[in-house]
Amino acid sequence: MSEPIRVVLVDDQQLVRAGLAMVIDAQSDMTVVAQAGDGAEAVALVAATPCDVVLMDVRMPGMDGLEATRRILAEANREPADTDDEPCGGPRIVMLTTYDLDEYLLAAIRAGASGFLLKNAPPADLLAAIRTVWEGDAVVAPSATRRLLEHVATAAPAAAQNPRLDLLTEREREVLELIARGLSNAEISAHLFLSETTVKTHVRRILAKLRIRDRVQAVVVAYESGLVRPR
């Protein structure tokens, strides 16, 4: 049996943390390894505690979850890999919020979060989100996904070229454009007449070269750099 997914809980409400811990520790494939009550405590705790996924409240007194996320991931990637084939380091972070607001959603993605869920999400959705981000993909609350893409597409500033796009091969740029159009790996495979395994390899290399963590951030990069234009 593989090692369980190590989860850190960050929320200023102890009862919320207790409820989350009860749900997570009841699973055979995950365990809560630490808890923090604010952003500053979370930054110090994650630096000292090996973990895979952090459930991070957005709004907390003192250092909020967005700033804590930035600091945790900045520390994890302070010494970049020697090659462009290494993905971003650090734990995957899922932001939890009571408020379904665009400003939190986009800020969380830009801070490096791999997930964004409302606190009233069913336990099954929360557990699925932990497993999804641990496996390397992103998860965004269904009610917010379309608004995220529309917001990025229409509100992105004038194209600001990302120099890391120059590292992509022609095929990788093509795959990135299709990701930004919302195509799944299976759809990209059919569109480009490639195997799904080959598409997955291209996606992994794209994320590594751009030093981003998941497909949602790839969409943001594609639109903000002007690689893809709103239709």
Description:
The protein has 231 residues and is of the alpha/beta class. It has ten helices and six strands, in the order βαβαβαβαβαβααααα. A six-stranded parallel beta sheet has the order 2-1-3-4-5-6, sandwiched between helices. The radius of gyration is 18 Å and the shape is globular.
Please tag this protein with its features.
single chain, globular, 49% helix, six-stranded parallel sheet, alpha/beta
Offer a quick outline of the entry:
49% of the residues lie in helices and 13% in strands. It is α/β, with parallel strands linked by helices and 231 residues long. The longest helix is centred in the last third of the chain and has 15 residues, at 196-210.
Topology diagram in text:
Elements: E1 5-10, H1 14-25, E2 30-36, H2 39-48, E3 53-57, H3 65-76, E4 92-97, H4 102-111, E5 115-118, H5 123-134, E6 139-140, H6 142-155, H7 170-180, H8 185-192, H9 196-210, H10 215-224
Parallel strand pairs: 1-2, 1-3, 3-4, 4-5, 5-6
Helix pairs in contact: 2-3, 3-4, 7-9, 7-10, 8-9
- Any idea what the radius of gyration is? 18 Å
Major β-sheet profile: 6 strands, parallel
Rounded mean pLDDT score: 83
The strand order across the widest sheet is 2-1-3-4-5-6
Helix content: 40-55%
Question: pLDDT under 50 segments (min length 5)?
Answer: 81-87
- One letter per element, helices H and strands E, the order comes to EHEHEHEHEHEHHHHH
Shape: globular
Strand content: 5-15%
The overall strand count is 6
Class computed from helices, strands and strand pairing? alpha/beta
Total helices: the number is: 10
Q: Determine the N-to-C terminus distance.
A: 47 Å
